[in-house]
């Protein structure tokens, strides 16, 4: 699988993330610089640092990711919509909206509410030609809940990616989670996030058909790929 990727193409598989709440400003500055150096697809940092990150990527093709109702997802549809509209007006360099689904509604089997949320929020994002990712937090859901949620998502044309987790869930994304998602998503692209730390993990997920990764270890994984790539 790796043979087909150039070093640049491999780097573009990653949304490089630094979202732990104890992150310092100096860590943010260094992280943004390193992520730009490695030419990742996009960067996700604490939202209060967006102005800094936007300025730094302004002359690159690197995008900025924002999380909507991150990481719990249980705000009202109206509140999530306000958040989306705020970031839409913030800067054109904000390219990706990673929306946390209302996990409480999913666990309550309130599928009518979930479907309405998916439709309203994704359509608002796509009206502005932005990337819409829905975070379903597989580690908090049963297999049946994952299946039903993926079936609903498969019917929403405005959703670009389904993202496995926030990175704040109780467990990492599993291969079983992705296998189950692939079966019921109707061809929707998958972004794996949550516990992605090694090149071997990335390879296995790519072999399963994953399109994109979110990781705080993106730079280390890219380094590992480059080292292997250049030895061949």
Q: Gist?
A:
This protein has 232 residues and is an alpha/beta fold. The protein has ten helices and eight strands.
Strand content: 15-25%
Q: Can you identify the CATH superfamily?
A: Aldolase class I
Q: What's the Cα radius of gyration? A: 17 Å
CATH architecture: Alpha-Beta Barrel
Structural class: alpha/beta
Q: Major β-sheet, in short?
A: 8 strands, parallel, barrel
Q: Give me the count of strands.
A: 8
Poorly predicted regions are: none
Number of folding domains? Answer: 1
Might you state the CATH topology name?
A: TIM Barrel
Shape: globular
The secondary-structure element order is: HEHEHEHEHHEHEHEHEH
How would you describe the overall organization of this protein?
It is an enzyme of class 4 (lyase). GO terms for molecular function: deoxyribose-phosphate aldolase activity. Its EC number is 4.1.2.4. Keywords: Cytoplasm, Lyase, Schiff base. This is Deoxyribose-phosphate aldolase. Strands 1-2-3-4-5-6-7-8 form an 8-stranded parallel β-barrel, surrounded by 4 helices. The protein has one domain (2-226): Aldolase class I (TIM Barrel, Alpha-Beta Barrel), CATH 3.20.20.70. It has helices at residues 7-11, 25-37, 50-56, 77-90, 103-107, 111-126, 143-154, 175-184, 199-207, 218-231; strands at residues 14-17, 42-44, 63-68, 94-100, 131-135, 161-163, 189-193, 212-215. Helix 3 links the parallel strand 2 and strand 3 (63-68). The model has no long low-confidence stretch (mean pLDDT 96). The longest helix is centred in the middle third of the chain and has 16 residues, at 111-126. Helix 6 packs across helix 7 and helix 7 packs parallel to helix 8. The protein has 10 helices and 8 strands. By secondary structure, the chain is α/β, with parallel strands linked by helices.
């Amino acid at each position: 699988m790796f043979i087909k990727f150039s070093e640049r193409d491999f780097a573009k598989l990653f949304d490089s993330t630094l979202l732990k709440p104890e992150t310092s400003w100096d860590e943010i500055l260094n992280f943004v610089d390193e992520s730009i150096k490695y030419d990742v697809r996009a960067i996700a940092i604490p939202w209060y640092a967006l102005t800094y990150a936007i300025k730094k990527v302004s002359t690159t093709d690197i995008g900025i990711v924002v999380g909507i109702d991150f990481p719990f997802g249980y705000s009202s549809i109206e509140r999530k919509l306000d958040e989306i509209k705020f970031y839409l007006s913030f800067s054109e360099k904000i390219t990706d909206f990673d929306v946390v689904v209302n996990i409480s509604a999913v666990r309550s089997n309130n599928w009518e509410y979930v479907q309405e949320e998916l439709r309203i929020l994704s359509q608002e994002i796509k009206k502005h030609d932005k990337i819409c990712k829905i975070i379903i937090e597989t580690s908090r859901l049963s297999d049946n809940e994952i299946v039903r949620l993926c079936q609903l998502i498969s019917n929403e044309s405005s959703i670009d990616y389904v993202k496995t987790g926030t990175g704040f869930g109780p467990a990492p994304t599993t291969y079983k989670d992705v296998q189950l998602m692939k079966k019921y998503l109707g061809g929707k692209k998958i972004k794996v996030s949550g516990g992605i730390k090694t090149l071997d993990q990335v390879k296995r997920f790519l072999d399963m058909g994953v399109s994109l990764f979110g990781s705080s270890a993106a730079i280390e994984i890219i380094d590992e790929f480059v080292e292997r790539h250049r030895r061949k």
